[in-house]
Amino acid sequence: MTRVRRRYIARRRRTKIRFFASTFRGAHSRLIRTITQQKIRALASSHRDRGRQKRDFRRLWITRINAITREKSVLYSYSRLIHNLYKKQLLLNRKIPAQIAISNKNCLYMISNKIIKSNSNKVDYKVMYSKGMIETKQNSPE
Description:
Layout: H1 8-20, H2 32-72, H3 78-87, H4 95-103, H5 105-121, H6 125-130
Helix pairs in contact: 1-2, 2-4, 4-5
Function: Binds directly to 23S ribosomal RNA and is necessary for the in vitro assembly process of the 50S ribosomal subunit. It is not involved in the protein synthesizing functions of that subunit.
Protein name: Large ribosomal subunit protein bL20c
Main location: plastid
């Protein structure tokens, strides 16, 4: 078979790869074989760290919310706050309360206190029925 000289096609491919690795240091930005290896490694790292970044930010937001909620009242915690938010069907992700906690602590206090007060005012009829405080229409004499 005759030899194929790739000329500008190979040069185009290499310049594309070099452009990707232009910010790398040393041979990682000059030699084609090491550039390709570093490119594979960089893309794998970026793919892995996208998931890790989401995880790290979620942990940061949870820590911030927990610190602010525990600062004001000792009995109230992050887990209770989130549980009560779900019970009230307030669909807030962790990012929004964390930003509120940084920018305006009083606003987060107001939200949490409103949830606490509304939960304490709620009457649990099952407990009252089991203790005999209320009766159903079937059991009451008419």
